[in-house]
Amino acid sequence: MAIVRLALPVAAHQLFDYWLPSGLAVALGSAVIAKIGRRRLAGVVAEIIASSEVAPERLLPIDEVVAGIPPLPDDVCALARFVAAYYQEPIGLCFAQALPPFVVARRAAVVSVPGATGLVKHALNADQRTAVSAVLPQPLEFAPSLVQGVTGSGKTEVYLAAAARLIAAGRQALLLVPEINLTPQLVERIVAALPGVRTAVLHSRLAAGERRRQWLAAATGDAQLIVGTRLAVFAPLPRLGLIVVDEEQDASFKQQEGVRYHARDVAIYRARLRDVPIVLGSATPSLESYAQATRGRYRWLKLPQRAVLQAALPEVRLVPNRASGSVEGIGSALQHAIAARLARNEQVLLFINRRGYAPSLLCAACGWKAMCPRCDARLVVHRDAGRLRCHHCSHAGNIPTACPECGNQDLLPLGFGTQRLERAVAELYPAARIVRVDRDSTRRKDSFAAMRNAIAAGEVDIMIGTQMLAKGHDFPRLTLVGVLGADNALYSGEFRATERLFTLLVQVSGRAGRGALAGEVLVQTDFADHPVYAALVAHDYDRFAAALLAERKSLGLPPFAHLALLSAEAKRPAALDTFLSTAATRGRAIAAAHGSECEVFSPVPAALPRRANLVRAQVLAQSPNRRALQAFLPLWRDELERIEERSVRWSLDVDPIGFA
Ligand SMILES: [Zn+2]
Ligand SMILES: [Zn+2]
Description:
By secondary structure, the protein is of the alpha/beta class. Helices cover 29% and strands 23% of the residues.
């Protein structure tokens, strides 16, 4: 009797044995349905073995083999095992990342948008041509490259040209992009640039049936180019020849719940498994990738110039935040610059760094603040809906007409939200046509696309926006970007805050002057001497990165240290304390017993110490050496699973990118 060992999507670190009824045929990687407890779950055949340690009478049969899905190939199975081991995640959940949603199979379809152009195809410049050749070794083999190109330098053209060469040679290319960048416009642009290439698109917002069709197109080898968000890193690709990770520094590549993996790092592992080249692209590489390039472990290719003729990088000026004549946070320098653009019929983008800058409600008489009753967080004013909302849980309430503490009827919104800025701008420039682009104004499906079309058609003078407008959009008449609230990031306690701020500022600055008209960026700040702004003005990421790396080295922080974060939450503070202090004590004991270089710190409250009525805290484990941390983690996880505090929910995050 054949025994199959299944990876089932349950929170366990083991495989489960079943017997195979005669008449069913499976291969390694086959998707099957089996009962576990009372549930019927879809799992993957991870091993086929002759005999089980489980007594035969206790073994269950598998119920059925999922029809219409080819078995997961060896490299995808190996990838799932790697993710389970490296990130300390349940193996069945890792295999589940690689399966498509289960719906009735139909014929595989691929995207084709015939004649969707309107975009001018530029011939590659010398830098781009050099980059294309350099990222593709002959013969094809594992070779990681970092393409560091200023905004507008045409990194996408480099990726697509490299992909086109491999596709012409019969291979598949996988292009991973951040969630916010995967727009219909990007897909159109790719289809237009690579006419005749069969393209599949994979992301989590696709309906299940559509996602499955796209997955099948990838898995059967029918699709030649696969464009997707982080989940596409697991797509089966029988003829894979190249992986590209665009905006490799983007935080959306890290999955923050469920299986906590980093798609960029998993992609590097996959490229090594398949012995194919991988290209990481960014204007502002992550310090992790930057350090690899400086050590010579990645090929390092720079695109220092904008690809469109005449388009230069915008001039960046720092202007004071608090100056006389400032109206609702818009200083006089910025006011003059806006007026000049309006007079010339050019477009302006006002960008608010939303992080920690959302408008909340304050009573000036008694100091009362509108707080979420369930979290240690201020409620945010959403004036359009007339609601106060918590951005950390689902709490929402009406905006009070008077202070609940003292009865004062004059409650002030504090902070510059996009809505308040929009009203101020409308009063300053009554003739200007203004559009606000944020989560509230674009909630309706297609409304973002409609706004973008209006902007492109020149029907808008001033755009007011948050992160949504920072990336990827190309408006030739946009010549001024004003940045408000950038300093907020400098108050953050997180060690990656300045790195992220720089990336954000480069991205938003990159919106200015992409066509023939010169661009200008005005950043309002109280800290004009800060290195992050000096580097921005000089367009000098390298100097900034070198300084940050030196600082990280002296502080023993990533990429010079490797971290794992144990986060826990509970209703009762005492249960949380007991769990985490036991976790820290046992962690130290393991490290001592094994002579490990790992250090386990004492519990500290999370950045948000209470969320949805749960108290939250963390323990950090750190090692100068990745191998030592990897050896330590499974032992620690075993101990954590033995701690008897049932009311505590916990998770381990290996290589965390944040401490929320
Ligand atoms: Zn009051
Ligand atoms: Zn809340």
